[in-house]
Amino acid sequence: MIAPENNIFKAATSAPSNIAIVKYWGKKGVQEPVNPSISFTLSKSITKTSISYSHNDSGLSIDFLFEGRSKEAFIPKLKTLSERLVKYLPFLESGDLKIESSNTFPHSSGIASSASSMASIARALYNIQMQITPNFKEASKPAMISEMARLGSGSACRSTMPGWVLWGETPLVSNSHNHYGISINESVHSVFNDLQDTILVIRKGAKSVSSTTGHQLMDNHPYRDGRIKQANKNIELLLGALKDGDFKTFSKVSEEEALSLHGLMMSSSPAYTLMAPESLRAIKRIIKFREHHHIPLTFTLDAGPNIHLIYPKSQSKIVHPFIEEHLRVLCDNEEVIFDEISLQ
Ligand code: DP6
To answer: Do 48 and 97 fall within a single domain?
Structure first.
């Protein structure tokens, strides 16, 4: 071990959030997905994390500060994560670990903060292990960091690399894996290289049912098998659309996945809804606008009421006035967040 002067190892990292087009919904084993998913990584919605670690032999203690304040509620998640990661990062066996995170985007705004936070924490923890044991498994770094992020939050494994990421096994992509995400940027047409993701913050605030609970409700869901089939079919359609630059199919898959996700929630036992009346109003306005103007414009939703409006940058001239005139008014405090794909 190379000990720094005061025996405190430090790492500062960051990671962006991502938005899934084919959704991960349902788990098996330890954080493995029941179906493959595809997302693109964002560029502006980022979690920054600093970690300091000092070794002692009295077991692992974890402190977590979010935006400068102690956040006890996150400690059990971090404890579970460290127990899962100790086989990769032996330093997690014992010592004092202090983790501080902050987001560049507003909290509970419909941007997946667990993806960016777990991805940045995985990066920082890896970095600490590298300082302690410099030759530490560097060859497998991208897959390993993605795998470690997955053990914190499934969707986080897609946030450790830029652009288009596939997570989960599919016979269509030979190196696809349930344990980590892989980049598929090389198989994506340039039409999708500058996608915009504008988030209509329909409702701010914590969700009534967490994604983790939503995943669990898929275990005995009456439509489970159908959903897995649908996701695999949509992976095939999406891979083809991304390759061919076919926005129409891309759009069909994106909307079908978003609405199916919410349909699955409404048909869970117990059933629940996360959409708000304004979510549906926005969807109807988007579809009507697209039909009128014949432009490439689509949407998706995560497990919440907020709408992600997706379009190539070249359409901003026409889409931005539409947002200002017809969509902003549907948002909580008229909040809209402009983000876009990050390819690096
Ligand atoms: C609807 O990754 O947040 O956003 O693994 O329990 O942390 P955990 O769940 P999480 O689920 C994300 C679900 C989704 C779809 C997606 O991002 O693929």
So the answer is: yes
**Which protein residue has the closest C-alpha to ligand 1 atom 7?**
153
For a ligand 1 pocket test, name from 17, 25, 155, 235 the mutation site with the most ligand atoms within 8 angstroms of its C-beta: 155
pLDDT digit string, tens, across residues 19-68: 999 999 999 999 999 999 999 999 999 999 999 999 999 999 999 999 99
CB 18 within 8 A of CB 110: no
CATH number where 200 lies: 3.30.70.890
Amino acid in the structure at residue 153: S
Ligand 1 atom with the shortest distance to the CA of 302: 1
Judgement on whether residues 43 and 153 belong to the same structural domain of the protein: yes
